[in-house]
């Protein structure tokens, strides 16, 4: 407290200046971590890979399923050992676990200094600055008075939580530091107003708030002026985007028209809100990829109703039919869950049946996990773990077979790729993605990277396609 500017300049100890950022969870978290990195970079922090070299360690957490929560929590506990060795280390838990547990996390995890929810992340940089300053002051004082550990001697007073902005607009003052030189994530909305009975996300990310379209477009124009060629628009339910003037179809059309942006994708679409206008925009715009991630969750009407998804299996199938009528080559992917409370064998068979009828290109598959505070958590989690595992395995086997068949059917077709870089297996080979987001390995000169090329698919493995280049576009 209350040390003068003068005193600060005289401090002999090194500034807290390196940070390590560990990210779990969905693409929204990836985007949030890029925003955090941008903020910290602007404040002069240097990023390091390992916490062993870091003065500040941030863990961006996910709690969507128990397994995700356990993984993040395990990692946070590991940091306690570093903190013992280096008491001045600042540890922050941010993201969905921070919002779920709030201040209680500071009590339960004595080595954690900062707890910051997703909607409070724009405040993180300032909080870090304050606590770093307190640590420096402590280091100074300890030289004077011989204190040994900041935790024992009150520097931990700087410990605090920011978890109160859950429903408010989110504005970051500086640009994100992006992971990828070609593909950029752009968050278009925060929060979720749907009450899917199993889902904790509305409790961790708050009510929906859409970023103004003008702000989003300005960001995309900057990306286009830089190295970026593909934009991924992010929201828990992009179809309910509305900034007061523009809905999602408007926004998508405007983003796709930004010169220099070759491709636009978006996740996630809620099947109940997918509009005909959106399908029209996707069909009409050459930059928007014909790629729909449309989580079905289950195939049984009874289960869907208890999940409060707002559609039945026939509604879902009609949607798929509509998409395929307008855009026959559309790649459609989904999320599916097994073992929801009360899910019978017959309900599960309905899910398998839906898989056979829709033939998704791929699916993310999960075992239901009760989440405290959600309506479903009050119902008995009555599908035994062994049954959940068995159902999951059958589901995966069926979907893998269909994905492989779809990949095989692409052999001989011509596909447009955005070339992303050398392939992981060999520097001689390049990797690109089709408009349907499938990975294709092919031979080509390094100059292709960042460009659109056409390949003919020659071979298909389980999750990878192989091709020969037929032409390169300017
Ligand atoms: N907003 C997106 C997805 C959010 S979470 C959407 O509505 O589609 C990503 C996926 O995690 C969900 O689609 C669902 O399949 C799964 N999921 C969410 N809560 C879960 C839970 N309690 N147990 C198991 N899977 C869950
Ligand atoms: Fe969760 Fe449903 Fe919102 Fe998706 S739409 S984040 S599953 S509540
Ligand atoms: Fe996880 Fe939060 Fe995303 S709970 S899935 S990181 S919205």
Plain-language structure description:
The chain folds into 3 domains: 3-162, 3-Layer(aba) Sandwich (Rossmann fold), CATH 3.40.50.12160; 183-408, tm_1862 like domain (pyruvate-formate lyase- activating enzyme); 414-472, Nucleic acid-binding proteins (OB fold (Dihydrolipoamide Acetyltransferase, E2P)), CATH 2.40.50.140. It starts with a helix and ends with a strand. α9 runs parallel beside α10 (276-284) and α13 (345-358) packs parallel to α14 (385-409). It is an alpha/beta fold and 474 residues long. The protein has helices at residues 5-10, 27-42, 66-85, 96-101, 104-108, 124-145, 201-205, 213-225, 248-256, 276-284, 301-307, 313-326, 345-358, 385-409; strands spanning 18-23, 46-47, 56-61, 90-95, 114-116, 160-162, 183-187, 189-190, 209-210, 230-234, 263-267, 291-293, 331-338, 362-367, 414-422, 429-433, 439-443, 452-460, 465-472. Strands 2-1-3-4-5-6 form a 6-stranded parallel sheet, with helices on both faces. Helices cover 36% and strands 21% of the residues. It is globular. Bound molecules: S-adenosyl-L-homocysteine, iron/sulfur cluster (SF4) and FE3-S4 cluster (F3S). Residues 192, 194, 196, 199, 201-202, 236-237, 270 line the site of iron/sulfur cluster (SF4). S-adenosyl-L-homocysteine binds next to β13.
């Amino acid at each position: 407290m209350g040390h003068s500017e003068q005193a600060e300049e005289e401090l002999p100890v090194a500034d807290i200046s390196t940070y390590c950022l560990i990210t779990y969870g969905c693409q929204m978290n990836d985007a949030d971590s890029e925003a955090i990195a941008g903020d910290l970079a602007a404040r002069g922090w240097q990023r390091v890979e390992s916490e062993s070299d870091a003065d500040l360690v941030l863990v961006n957490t996910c709690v969507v399923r128990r397994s995700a929560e356990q993984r993040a929590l395990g990692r946070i506990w590991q940091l306690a050992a570093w903190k013992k060795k280096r008491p001045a280390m600042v540890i922050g838990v941010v993201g969905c676990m921070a919002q779920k547990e709030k201040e209680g996390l500071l009590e339960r995890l004595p080595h954690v200094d900062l707890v910051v929810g997703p909607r409070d992340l724009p405040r993180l940089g300032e909080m870090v600055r304050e606590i770093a300053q307190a640590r420096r002051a402590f280091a100074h004082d300890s030289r004077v008075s011989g204190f040994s550990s900041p935790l024992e001697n009150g520097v931990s007073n700087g410990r605090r939580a920011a978890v109160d902005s859950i429903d408010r607009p989110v504005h970051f003052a500086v640009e994100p530091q992006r992971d990828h030189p070609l593909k950029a994530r752009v968050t278009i909305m925060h929060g979720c107003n749907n009450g899917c009975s199993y889902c904790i996300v509305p409790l961790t990310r708050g009510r929906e708030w859409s970023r103004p379209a003008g702000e989003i477009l300005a960001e995309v124009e900057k990306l286009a002026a830089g190295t970026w060629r593909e934009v991924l628009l992010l929201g828990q339910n992009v179809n309910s985007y509305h900034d007061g003037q523009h809905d999602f179809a408007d926004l998508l059309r405007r983003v796709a028209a930004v010169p220099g942006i070759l491709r636009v994708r978006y996740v996630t679409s809620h099947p109940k809100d997918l509009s005909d206008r959106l399908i029209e925009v996707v069909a009409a715009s050459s930059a928007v990829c014909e790629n729909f991630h449309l989580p079905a969750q289950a195939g049984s009407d009874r289960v869907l109703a208890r999940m409060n998804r707002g559609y039945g299996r026939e509604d879902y199938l009609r949607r798929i039919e509509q998409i395929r009528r307008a855009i026959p080559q559309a790649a459609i992917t989904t999320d599916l869950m097994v073992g929801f409370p009360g899910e019978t064998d017959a309900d599960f068979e309905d899910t398998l049946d839906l898989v056979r009828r829709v033939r998704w290109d791929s699916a993310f598959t999960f075992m239901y996990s009760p989440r405290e505070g959600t309506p479903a958590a009050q119902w008995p989690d009555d599908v035994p773990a062994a049954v959940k595992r068995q159902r999951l395995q059958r589901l995966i086997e069926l979907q893998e077979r269909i994905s492989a068949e779809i990949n095989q059917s692409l052999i001989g077709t011509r596909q447009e790729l955005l070339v992303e870089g050398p392939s992981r297996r060999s520097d001689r080979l390049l990797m690109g993605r089709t408009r349907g987001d499938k990975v294709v390995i092919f031979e080509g000169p390094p100059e292709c990277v960042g460009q659109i090329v056409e390949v003919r698919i020659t071979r298909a493995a389980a999750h990878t396609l192989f091709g020969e280049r037929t032409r390169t576009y300017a």
